[in-house]
Amino acid sequence: MLFKKITHKFKFASRQKKIIILLSTIALCCILVAAGITINKYCEGIKAQQEAQKMLEYYNSAVDKESKGQIEYEGYEVIGKLIIDNISLSLPIISPYSVNALSTSVCYYQGSLPGQDGNMVITGHNYASGAHFGNLDKLRVGDKVMLETPGGQKYEYTVYNIEVINPDNTAALYKYEGNSALTLLTCTSNGNRRLLVRCKIE
């Protein structure tokens, strides 16, 4: 009788140990998968920044040659350069907008063009590495945003509003102050909502 009780306890303990090992293995696999996804996204950001840097160098070279017309690079039109010193950002603005284009640099999304009345919307990825619009959430009201065109025109905007909206709130993209405005658009870090940084020329 005593032997049976000992055997039963041993089997129960052995079963518990197997369950613990199984759960630990599953947890470890989940951690490794999550880490792999994070690393992959980080690497994507580094690659995207490298692509944008190559395009920016080409753009700067073309502008230095006093190019007054359109500047094209690998099928994209580079309509200008976005500069935000507070977050160490300097990126070419490309058109037309597409999912593939977003992996290269920030894109002209909709609205007016630089210098025109209306609201220009520029969108970009929020990369975990900080590439493109990865640090856009660090901007504050009063910060300056510069936009340069291939023709040499420079437009200085001031951030006047920052808000987070739902993805389906497209009407928010049409709201702006002043005659000439600029809206910077990206995803929040979890990808569930959208960050809008509204700027205007004062």
Descriptive overview:
This protein is an alpha+beta fold. It has a single domain (40-200), classed as Sortase (Sortase, Chain: A, Beta Barrel), CATH 2.40.260.10. 33% of the residues lie in helices and 31% in strands. The chain has 2 helices and 9 strands; from the N terminus they run αβββαββββββ. A hairpin with a 5-residue loop joins β6 and β7 (154-165).
Summarize the entry for a quick read.
By secondary structure, this protein is of the alpha+beta class. Helices cover 33% and strands 31% of the residues.
Give the low-confidence spans. none
- Give the beta-strand count: 9
Q: Which percent range describes the beta-strand content?
A: 25-35%
CATH superfamily: Sortase
| Anisotropy-based shape | globular
| CATH C-level class | Mainly Beta
CATH topology (level 3) name: Sortase, Chain: A
Q: Specify the structural class.
A: alpha+beta
Mean pLDDT: 83
Largest beta sheet: strand ordering: 2-3-4-5-8-9-7-6
Oligomer: single chain
The helix content, as a percent range, equals: 25-40%
Could you spell the SSE succession in H and E letters? HEEEHEEEEEE
Count of separate DSSP helical elements: 2
Largest sheet: 8 strands, mixed, barrel
Q: What Rg do the Cα atoms give?
A: 25 Å
- How many domains make up the 3D coordinates? 1
Shape-level CATH architecture: Beta Barrel
How far apart, in Å, are the first and last alpha carbons?
A: 91 Å
